[in-house]
Amino acid sequence: MYQASRENIDFIVKEGRPRELYFDSPLPSGDGKVDRVKALLFEAEKPKGAVIFLHGLGNRNFKPLRYYPENFQHNGYTVVMPILPYHFERTPEGKKSGVAFLQGTDEEIMSHFEQAVTDVLVCLDYLQKSGYSRMNIMGFSFGGMISAIVMGLDRRIEKGIFVVTGGNFEYITWQSVATRVLRVSYEENEECNQEKCHQLHLAFDSFARTFSSPLDLEKMPVCFRYDPSLFAGLIKADKVLMFNALFDPFIPRKSADDLWVRLGKPKRYFLFSGHLTAHLLGKRFILDKSLAFLEGKEEEIFS
Question: What is the pLDDT of residue 171?
């Protein structure tokens, strides 16, 4: 898992403001709309590094979150902002953006996560081939989960910024208002319930402590294989900056704390906001602290 070949990718760049990057997913789902990757390119004139920026789950967060890539660009960072599978232009016909990502069996959901992670790894390949050596990643909510998995897998990433996100799918599945579609899928296919999930997760700590390679994933329950908390132990705490919301019904506090602890308790800020208002109320604060973190200005990060 997460080891699909990424050789011979045909990158196409279309002119515009910003320019757009296109390529075919190297781990196709079989749906042509899902499998054609589109990413926005915010290219700095004199870049001092690059950032992969990942949006959250749903159908209304892409345009507002462009605030961060646009401002990173103005501050000397080239940003690639891919559209993740089952979202926006990559949504299957007849589906709502984001919903299909969490629909299906554990195996199907695992394949959605694997495709998302693989597509982001291709974006890193593109940046590397374009001459970038200092590469970072930032993700909001669901995008933060994908960011943590990618950072755990790929040593090319120097720093990660995870905003209003968390880990441990026992908490995410049964305590978040955002995962109702996932609970409905489990009810329909009778694959899981809250008690079964709890019993399964009694072994999660043991798997997380010993996890060191994608080869270990085959030994694990399927739902562990796409849990950001599993990958947290592969990431150094001083390479991470986190933001969580104080009033967040989408990312339960237990989920946010689980990821934070397993990451080694990196620097974390709490926003006086809810999940959906974190960007609206805290965007300038998030941007300023993120830029200071990327540039190694510790006095500004900890002030």
Answer: 87
Give the chain's domain count: 1
Per DSSP (E only), the strands in the chain are 12-14, 19-24, 36-42, 49-54, 77-82, 135-140, 157-163, 240-247, 267-274
pLDDT at 120: 99
Which of 77, 83, 84, 81 lies closest to 135, judged by CA? Answer: 77
Residue with tokens 């030994």: 219
pLDDT at 88: 95
Tokens matching residue 120? 């982001």
Q: Which domain holds residue 176?
A: 12-301
CATH number at residue 99: 3.40.50.1820
Tell me the pTM: 0.94
Q: Is 4 contained in some domain?
A: no
Phi, psi at 278, each rounded to 5° = -60, -45
Tell me, yes or no, whether 16 lies in a domain. Answer: yes
Residue 2 forms part of a structural domain: no
Answer left, alpha or beta for residue 190, where phi above 0 means left and psi between -120 and 50 means alpha. Answer: left
| pLDDT reading at 191 higher than 80 | no
